[in-house]
From TrEMBL:
GO terms for biological process: amino acid metabolic process. Pfam families: Aminotran_1_2. Residues 32-386 form the Aminotransferase class I/classII large domain. Its cofactor is pyridoxal 5'-phosphate. This is Aminotransferase. It comes from Planococcus donghaensis. It comes from the Bacteria. Keywords: Aminotransferase, Pyridoxal phosphate, Transferase. The keyword Endoplasmic reticulum does not apply. InterPro entries: Aminotransferase_I/II_large, AspAT/PAT-like, NHTrfase_class1_PyrdxlP-BS, PyrdxlP-dep_Trfase, PyrdxlP-dep_Trfase_major, PyrdxlP-dep_Trfase_small.
Length: 394
């Protein structure tokens, strides 16, 4: 065994990967497994974006770029933030990185000293705690229960803050809950952040995927103070079905962006050049495909949600955004004879041949996460299989 660095000793491998590996194993044996684990839209990247990428390569734009992104991409992002949120940023306040994930990683590396605390609401996106720990920070969890629609209250935030608190992470719309903070809820949270002078990491990667008549509000839009203390994170992965292109960005205070860019200059050199040209087209070109994909997700949600609700022992809140459902299945697991939701998930895969993600990976042990970023036909079949599995063992 290699003697590895202390910093990776507690690194938890992604739960998503473990279940996907098992599902692939079964598929290789010829088993008809339906995977509901995907964290990415099932559409190809829109044609105009593919064309722009191809054209840039033909034009010889295949070399290094500035570490924090091409000026033209920064400009496209600045225009997008102005157009969609009414926010004004200068190029010095924008840093483009290799997906929102790596931008967040870079952020925590430049922000945290050993022992600095970052408040993370449960259920959380799997990478937040690991990234904070890799930067020698300490994740401090606040549990947002189903009864509070998986959203933290200002009081909970207040109570979690200590003199070591550096920031709170807010992810709206949320992966895995699909919940969206209203403007009023964000105002109350921003007020606590102002009072205790802490930063806000606002992960808005699912901004474009919202359903019904809810609205996405960026906390940075609430006041000059909120904007100053917010690190706004977004990217093209989910909005433009560009997960594999790896383009995300941060909009924040110029000194923070400079530090992140300096770090990137030694770690990545620059985000992939071709992908940057693709992202310029994603933001500057027509946005029809974004809306088409949103509508398709909403349609699937409308079909699948009542079917999921009808499964005995499943309690599920209708999500407002993203493309995940997070039913509490503790009753179903207990009634069908499983000691834990993790065991229930394993049995769902091996016996019903449906792959879902156990909520334990998101800090929400009584839940499972299903992604509806797959065809309606497969979704319907998968939920029928789950229903059948539960009733046959009840
Ligand atoms: N933030 C959240 C909440 C996510 O779910 C994801 C991807 O699954 C990301 C950030 C990272 O997105 P990307 O690195 O593809 O830009």
């Amino acid at each position: 065994m290699m003697n590895l660095a202390n910093r990776v000793q507690t690194l938890t491998p992604s739960t998503t990967l473990a279940i996907t590996a098992k599902a692939n194993e079964l598929k290789a044996q010829g088993v008809d497994v339906i995977g509901l684990g995907a964290g990415e839209p099932d559409y190809n990247t829109p044609e105009n974006i593919l064309e722009a990428a191809y054209q840039s390569m033909k034009d010889g734009k295949t070399k290094y770029t500035p570490a924090g992104g091409l000026p033209a991409l920064k400009e496209a992002i600045i225009n997008k933030l102005q157009r969609d949120q009414g926010l004004s940023y200068s190029p010095k306040e924008v840093m483009v990185g290799i997906g929102a994930k790596h931008v967040l990683y870079t952020l925590f590396q430049v922000l945290l000293n050993e022992g600095d605390e970052v408040i993370i609401p449960i259920p959380y996106w799997v990478s937040y705690p690991e990234q904070v720990k890799l930067a020698q920070g300490v994740p401090v969890y606040i549990e947002a229960t189903a009864s509070q629609e998986y959203k933290i209250s200002p009081l909970q935030l207040r109570e979690a803050i200590t003199d070591r608190t550096k920031a709170v992470i807010l992810n709206t719309p949320s992966n895995p809950t699909g919940m969206i903070y209203s403007k009023e809820e964000l105002e109350a949270l921003a007020e606590v952040c102002r009072e205790f002078d802490i930063l806000i990491v606002s992960d808005e990667i699912y901004e474009k995927l919202i359903y019904g008549d809810v609205k996405h509000t960026s906390i940075a839009t609430l006041s000059e103070d909120a904007k100053k203390r917010t690190i706004l994170i977004n990217g093209v992965s989910k909005s433009h079905s560009m997960t594999g292109w790896r383009i995300g960005y941060a909009a924040a205070d110029a000194s923070l962006v400079k530090a992140m860019t300096d770090l990137a200059s030694h770690s990545t050199s620059n985000p992939v050049t071709t992908s940057q040209y693709a992202a310029i087209e994603a933001y500057n070109g027509p946005q029809d495909a974004v809306e088409e994909m949103r509508q398709a997700f909403e349609e699937r949600l409308n079909v699948i949600f009542p079917k999921l609700q009808a499964i005995p022992g499943f309690t599920v809140i209708r999500p407002q955004g993203a493309f995940y459902l997070l039913p509490d299945v503790s009753e179903a697991a207990a009634k069908t004879g499983y000691g834990s939701v993790d065991d229930f998930v394993t049995a769902l895969l091996t016996e019903a041949n449906v792959a879902v993600i156990p909520g334990s990976g998101f800090g929400a042990n009584s839940t499972i996460r299903l992604s509806y970023a797959t065809s309606l036909e497969k979704l319907t079949e998968a939920v029928e299989r789950i229903h059948q599995f539960v009733t046959s063992k009840w």
